[in-house]
Amino acid sequence: MELRTADFDFALPEALIAQEPARPRDAARLLVVDDALRDMAVRDLPALLQPGDLMVVNDTQVIPARLVAFRGEARIEVMLNRAEGGGVWHALLRNSRRLRAGDVLRIPGSAVTARVLEAPEGGAARLDFGGDDAALAEALAAVGEIPLPPYIARPDGPRATDSADYQTAFASKPGAVAAPTASLHFTPELLAALAARGVQRAELTLHVGAGTFLPLRAENPREHRLHAEWGEVTPEAAAAINLARAEGRRIIAVGTTALRLLEAATTGEHAVPVRPFRGLTEIFLLPGHRFTTADLLMTNFHLPKSTLLMLVSAFAGTARMRAAYAHAVAAGYRFFSYGDSSLLTLTGAAR
What we know:
Elements: E1 29-33, E2 37-41, H1 45-48, E3 54-58, E4 60-62, E5 66-71, E6 74-85, E7 88-94, E8 104-106, E9 113-116, E10 124-128, H2 133-143, H3 162-165, E11 173-176, H4 188-197, E12 200-206, E13 229-233, H5 235-246, E14 251-254, H6 256-264, E15 277-281, E16 296-300, H7 307-316, H8 318-330, E17 341-345
Parallel strand pairs: 1-17, 3-12, 3-14, 4-11, 14-16
Antiparallel strand pairs: 1-2, 5-6, 6-7, 7-10, 8-9, 9-10, 12-13, 13-15, 16-17
């Protein structure tokens, strides 16, 4: 299938880019996309799901990964991207052209320093924080910032509510630098209603990296390469997912991050789709991909020409998603991380 990045463009009024979440979170709108388009609310999920359905959610926790560091008098902006173990992090840097291997960065307000392991390439480098993960976590809590997406404007600086707003109800495994935003809509009341409905839940972990915000510049999407992200599907989670499939129950991926990791862990067989997984994934799901792990996908509305818009088009059909996004814009849905949500049915062609 010939793909062009331009085919995934659309006009989005700036006023529709959400700057804060709905309050309460489950008051957000929900566009149901199956054989028709239905305008509903996230709090309607219990009525839309069935007893025995299995929701698969991402339990990653966003860390305050944005730091300001100095080499001498030179100010370096640091975005931690992915832990590599032993205190070493892959990071994205600004104003890093003069950095060299061996340079030491100091972080004001903290006793922690970072040694540059090799000269930055493409604005990325590996930094060694000395192996004391507890000290680094303490430093991040003291001087780091939650890395809100660039389209959320904070001209007067971070808000006191940002740290809580940009964390999901399932967050328990620190390591992400971006939230799995479909899960931002869940409240204790909604989770209780889903449990009362008989909807089950399995958790996996994908530490979302800073690469999720990077633009797709290649005209041919197949030339784009995603940054690697660390994920884990435990044997217990894989068993729960495979049991649901074997019993003919539906699997609902809550968020594109959950779906990407499920597909990275797939056996390729629809009947028993998932194996335990622990490691890095660069999986890039484009139209033409054959999904075997999920029947429904809950996801927010994504950026034009983005890898995630391509993913949802692969899952629910390109023509169907064009119609859904046109409807969402015309109906005033709120877009992106703090915006409204959608519930997509896997198309027959994608099975």
